[in-house]
Amino acid sequence: MSGPDPADTREEVVGWLRVATADRRVARLCLDADPPARDGAAFHCQQAAEKVLKGFLVQAGIDFRKTHDLDLLGRTVLTRFPSLEPLVLPLRDWTNWGVAYRYPGEPDVVPQPSVMELDRALDLIARLASELEAIAL
Q: 101-119: per-residue pLDDT in tens?
């Protein structure tokens, strides 16, 4: 019995990178708005980080369930890619960005990140995506 076809794996990883890039683009547009739409940028940063992490899991051949939990995804990625710890650990605090600002009437229990924090998040996601591209493409 053989493992997954490397070409199929590569194609799936490229798909995760493509949608992560789209989320990063939308996050940047939100930050460039006047005034910046930090809530939208945070949401799309969370989404982009999630998709890059899932790309690493596909690359490693690790099955994952449907989840938005960046801490869980990150810990799983680190089982195969421990050198990524400095890039992955900061993501664990972003899971709430995926839902915290999306619904009316919900109390803002998670303060919106600043533009500077979101800029750093986009940089971190881009660096993580570059690492995935380096091993997958």
A: 887 766 667 789 999 999 9
CATH number of 17's domain:
1.20.120.330
| Residue 1 forms part of a structural domain | no
Per the structure block, which two tokens stand in for 66? 């449907």
The tens digit of pLDDT for each residue in 66-79 reads: 999 999 999 999 99
What is d(CA 4, CA 39) in angstroms, rounded to the nearest whole number?
Answer: 39
Structural domain of residue 111, as residue ranges? 6-136
